[in-house]
Amino acid sequence: MSKQDKKDNVLEFPAKRMIRQKSMLRTQEKKAVLGLSVLGLFVFTVAANQWIADFNKFGAGSRNVASIQLDNKQAIIKEHMLAREIASKENVVGFKSQEPSLKDEMIFSSLEGKYRVKSDAQRVLAVQSEDDSEARVDISDGESFVKKYISLFNDKAVHFKLTNRSDASEVYELLDQKGVVIDRLQLDKDAAGKLTQLKVL
Fold first, then answer.
1. Which among 8, 157, 167, 193 could bridge 174 via Cys, Cβ 3.0 to 4.6 Å?
2. What does residue 60 show for φ and ψ, rounded to 5 degrees?
């Protein structure tokens, strides 16, 4: 066999096909890596969300979102029950709120809520203004004020008597049904005639 025949019998190595296969393999590997990356990111996100949800539910922050939702749910249930109660009553235009007490009327109406009030279970012991004279209330007629609210200072008092009056103060004796003095009440005013304090002596 000649040299030329030997050359003709040699098969050429398929270099172009190998390059094409290698590039296809690389493309498939890139796709696989990208797919695994996306899957890993998804799994991490789900796990992180679950951990945050569990922490809010059972962890140190148990008084935030979950408890607010529970409070809202209870409030909604109460509103539904109240609506059913109103709907079940005939000819109900609306519910009237509780009437303000005489003490509430004195504090928030006559004194406009501008004074500190000291009281016990039975009576008002003292009324003190804040330091700001602009916030004080003008009590031009002390006798009318005492007459209206006498029972707040002593529930047994039915009458009163003015015993001392000056520009700065008025002193009243509180009398029971028999005319016996059971308490004394002093109203102090500033130069403008506004109430600075009121106290049971």
1. 157
2. -65, -25
The answer on pLDDT for 129 being more than 80 is yes
- The residues, any chain, with a CB within 8 Å of residue 75's CB and separated by 6 or more, are none
Does pLDDT of 85 surpass 80?
Answer: no
Residue 90 banded pLDDT, cuts 50, 70, 90: low
Residue written as tokens 């009121």? 198
The full DSSP string for 32-85 is: HHHHHHHHHHHHHHHHHHHHHHHHHHHSTTTTSHHHHHHHHHHHHHHHHHHHHH
What is residue 104's three-state secondary structure?
helix
Helices H / strands E in the chain, number of each? 5, 6
What pTM does this model have? 0.50
pLDDT digits (tens, 9 = 90+) for 175-197: 999 989 999 999 998 888 888 89
Q: Is residue 66 within 8 Å of 54, Cβ to Cβ?
A: no
- The two tokens of residue 200 are 């049971």
Give the neighbor-by-neighbor strand order of the sheet with 195-200. 115-119, 124-129, 195-200, 181-189, 169-175, 159-165
Residue 128 makes CB contacts below 8 A (sequence gap 6+) with: 115, 116, 117, 118, 197
